[in-house]
Amino acid sequence: MMLEFPETVSKLNFKAPAKKSSSKSQFDYHVSDAKLPNHKLRVKNTPKDLGIDSVKQYSGYLDVEDEDKHFFYWFFESRNDPKNDPVILWLNGGPGCSSLTGLFFELGPASIGADLKPVHNPYSWNSNASVIFLDQPVNVGYSYSSQSVSNTIAAGQDVYAFLELFFKQFPEYNTLPFHIAGESYAGHYIPVFASEILSHEDRSFNLTSVLIGNGLTDPLTQYEYYEPMACGEGGEPSVLEPEECQAMSNAIPRCLSLIKSCYESGSLWSCVPATIYCNNGQMGPYQKTGRNVYDIRTMCEGSNLCYKDLEYIDQYLNQPEVKAKLGAEVDEYESCNFDINRNFLLAGDWMKPYYKNVIELLEAKLPVLIYAGDKDFICNWLGNQAWTNSLPWSGAAKFATEKIRTWTVGKKAAGEVKNFANFTFLRVFGGGHMVPYDQPENALDMVNRWVSGDRKF
């Protein structure tokens, strides 16, 4: 998630995102389907020329023609056994951040060095799975539109259309297990997107599970845990003075009352004030310390997201030769679009109870993994543990009584896990908000075990 919060509603300075465009690239394939008459998929074969990985790759756009929406994607085939390995869709959060951040900074085949050259990642998630990185909603990353999407429900319909056309173009993958993974605001996205997919009984692909890392899913439960995390109860020493911790505690009752009103009404008139008041009261004191909201152990430096190396990714993806090989049609790539972030806030989307969709997924017997790096502040493990423990699904009573077990990678403890049936919570030791960045080897073990069907670790 990004942080750029006004103090009052009157200070919300919103503007519509400008349409992004440039000369149109030549694409190798154009795909359409009678079931989706307003959608078209364009495909390029040339991203492999960039040397990010040696595997088969595709990039291009999903076009929603009657709405002038254009979603960019980049696909990497598995390094292992692509005919049998599963397919993973990866989504970054924000809302408004490009999934190419996940590609180059976290779990993709390569990172980008200071010389703007790719650096091989031996722990890429495409070691044993094919991975799709999708820039959504529109006006994020290489995606563009003259319009704007400002709520999770609308975004889910577009993602379903993308997947239908992708698997139509590449039918060799559509019978393989398919998983959706993501982090941060993907705690909103993924429950809704998966529910949208399950609502289409005629879908042409096999949704097998979902994975949410350090997500925001149940704010009413999670917002109580900012003060404990900042003030020494999450496994790290307190980073605030006692009076600051007390001020955060004092603000919680009103914060929770506002979130509850948002849950009950769904109105932006309830949800927007809840977002502004709670984020200023629960995140503001921490931000003032200058610490990294994504890793309580470090100070914020470099880009808007507190990591200097992210600047190299922006520079790389703005090179004309890179954009040409990928078919990118934007004048300028930005890792995060703060206008999109504020538009979602203005629509009241931030505080809505999307945890209800997780219940729907569990009752449909879809496996759900909630994982959380335990050094993150902004979507911390305490809050994620709490909402998974309180989730009112049919297996709640038995989930509550399950013992916490140690997750080991090799002979070392990598975290703690709790599982019942198709629901798993995993605390990742030493991971910040972006677990694959901080713990690449352990994150790969996590995803490999999960997609292989290991629900208990």
TrEMBL record:
One example of a Gene Ontology biological process annotation: cellular response to nitrogen starvation
Enzyme Commission numbers on file: 3.4.16.-
Residue span(s) of domain Propeptide carboxypeptidase Y: 1-39
Domain of life: Eukaryota
Annotated Gene Ontology cellular component terms: fungal-type vacuole lumen
Alphabetic keyword roster: Carboxypeptidase, Disulfide bond, Glycoprotein, Hydrolase, Protease, Signal, Vacuole, Zymogen
Positions of transmembrane segments: none
GO molecular function, one term: serine-type carboxypeptidase activity
Keyword Amino-acid biosynthesis: no
Keyword DNA-binding: no
Subcellular location: Vacuole
Catalytic reactions of this protein: Release of a C-terminal amino acid with broad specificity
Primary location class: other
Signal peptide stretch: none
Coiled coil ranges: none
Function recorded in the entry: Involved in degradation of small peptides.
Family: Belongs to the peptidase S10 family.
Protein name in UniProt: Carboxypeptidase
Organism: Scheffersomyces stipitis (strain ATCC 58785 / CBS 6054 / NBRC 10063 / NRRL Y-11545) (Yeast)
